[in-house]
Fold each of these.
Amino acid sequence: MSGLVGGGLRVCVFLLHRIAFASLLAEVLVPFVIPQPARAQQRREREPNSVYAQRRAKLISNLDGPIVLFGYTGKEEEGQTYVFVQEENFYYLTGHNEENAVLVLVPANGPPNESSTKKDNWEGAREILMLPDKDPAKEKWNGVRMSPTDPGIEARTGFASVKSRSEARGSVERLAKLYPTMYTILPYTKELGGYPHEKETLEWLKLAAPAANFKDVRENIAHMRVVKSPTEIAFLREAIHLSLDAHFAAMRMTHPGLWEYQVAAKMVYVHAMGGSEAEAYAPIVGAGPNSTALHYDKLERKIQDGDIIVMDVGAQYSGYAADITRTIPANGKYTPRQQEIYDIVLGAQNAALRALKPGAIMGCKGNKNTLQAIAYEYINTHGKDQHGKPLGQYFIHGLGHSIGLNVHDPGLDYCKPLLPGMVVTVEPGIYIPEENLGVRIEDDVLVTESGNELLSQKLPREVEQIEKIMAEGAKERSAEITH
């Protein structure tokens, strides 16, 4: 997806949510039941418990007060197709993907400046995961959930102390008597105060501990998330692999007369059959004039002969998001003008990729030595619009962003040097509405010790190779018709 474009991702419900057969059958057999809580998304894999434990230890070691984080409740949406997905920061620290959990972390060294009159009398564990109590009635609808009384729950979760969610308030009240400062994820100051979950969490905490000073731990976690662990990189590789399969399939099937939604549906199908638990974001398939809209999501155009098609579609695997874009000709052959613009975008991407290494800066205002500036300069010095003006004005977004648990993963400082272990997109684009011509090429790149690795390199970027794949697809379709 285009870099540095703000706003939430709008969801194409019929494409994004996979309805479990058991739930569908229940709706058919019992049509007038009360809507039940969301099912939990099944993550294919998760990192070892030791990795989550190391993150928690690193996070709390730098703070002067306890951390209290609330997972999502499962009631964030009311739609029947809603599938529960854990709050990302909570998942990053716990690997827990079920509803209504609470995480409490207490500093190992006690409160700062403790005196004989106020010492750390905290007698509980320094890491506590709180889970809802067992609810057999609810489990008949939504399947078994972990509970604090499950045998072996400590080994399963990686927490030495797993308590009932009902103990959360008492724990916070006791901690507030020992620590003047506590940490949680505060609501954004923008967007009317942030998301309801964060506002509700803070309100709850202030009721439980009205005298406490609550500080934001969001940025602390974001700084940890930006450099990926080996397992995170493995999950991203799999998400990218599934995404490449979908793009190959789309190239082979696409021809004039299809609808944008049919191309998107094919790609989602390939992802799901390969093991993706969800889309990384709402599929973007924009043909003709829709190719110039960065996050176009209506998928309502019938593809015309001569259209160019931007396909920005990525899979999620084990919670980790790929982000891949290719731009292809509807009829399998780029027009001279389409190829001219395409080759300029490809040249800009290659120029940025050659410079991408540890120490490089992604994009910072006023700095002419960034990857963003390199890509922009290439575009602005190659080719013209219909009025003879340079094309730089049509490169309207950032060059890229971090990917991880979110397709726009937090923590990447665009003015600071890249570090080994970061995974970023490189996605220059040119969008000329006057010509109904938009081109974006987006790949996922791992920053290595000596340079970079193009994780999506198996998916062709060159015009000749894309046209060859589409020609092979046309032959396959003709062969199916004759048989």
Note: Residues 16 and 279 are 6 Å apart (CA to CA).
Amino acid sequence: MNKEGKVLGSCAKLYNSREGFEQFVKMTEGLKTKHGLNDVLIGMEPTGHYWRKHAYFAKERGYEVRFVRTTALKHHREIDESSSAKSDQRDALTIANITREGKYIDTVIEDGAMRQLRTLAKTRERLLRYSVSAKNALHAALDDYFPEVHKIFCSMGTRSLWAILEQCPFPDDVVGIKISSLQELIARSARKKAGAAQKAKALYRAAQKSIGLKRVGDADRFRVTIYLEEVKRTVLVLKDIARQIVKYAGYDPQESDSGSWVSRKFISNKGRWLLRKYLFFMSMRVVVLSKYFQEYYQRKLETKNRVGQQPKRKEILCAVAIKLIKVIFALLRDKRTFDDRVRATVTHT
């Protein structure tokens, strides 16, 4: 369609392949030559995922690409023909007409670092939806078989709960185990060992008085096992995103051992140097302004590295930067504010 609204050619099919894209370029250049046109403006509706490769391909070939909102397309279709009936041919003409009128979205098609960040954010949102769905399914299963467990373990993502569900997921299973064994199981899987004895006793008493369904069979056990594995998988993948951010900043620890010689750990420096620089500046400030990070810094000073040496100040600040990334990620993931009174934990390496 030209700027006067005249349709210049029929609606051709665009195949999702190299041959299909090259055929599109050939058709476009042919129309330009035939009608004496100088510029080409491509309009598309960014739904699904097929548009993405076409948009980047067109950009690489020097074409301008603009996007049309789905709602605008629907309203324009109804105004044009007083009908919301949909077809590929009608939509192509409507999109071309909207683009010709300049009613498109001015969107910059970014590549490189911006596209990587956008992809990471979208992946995280999808994983979050999967994680919430899996936790809800496990929560519903426990409501059927062992509802009292919710008062003892605050979250479906608790490692101590995972350990219990792997070994003794039903009240009868818990009653058949000694309290000392339950305490050892909880303490081995939990970060905070202090409350293991109290939780073990509470769990045993709850199992004795449980109102959960009786006569548990293989199907019930399979249900709990499948939901538990799904919860564990999604939670661990979400935690891996934090590690990917650390790698993206170039703060992932590296080793260079050879035979009996053990080297000091060092950061890879392979990520975004500007992000790494400002994270280092931030770590210098948080160890001064935040009690949480001050405590983390002081405890790192008291530890020794993997070769038995006192860590250097720069090494500790790099560890603070990694901790800062994980704290920010956890705050965004859990949608909560930072509490400076929480005790920092130190990982010995």
Note: The chain has a mean pLDDT of 81.
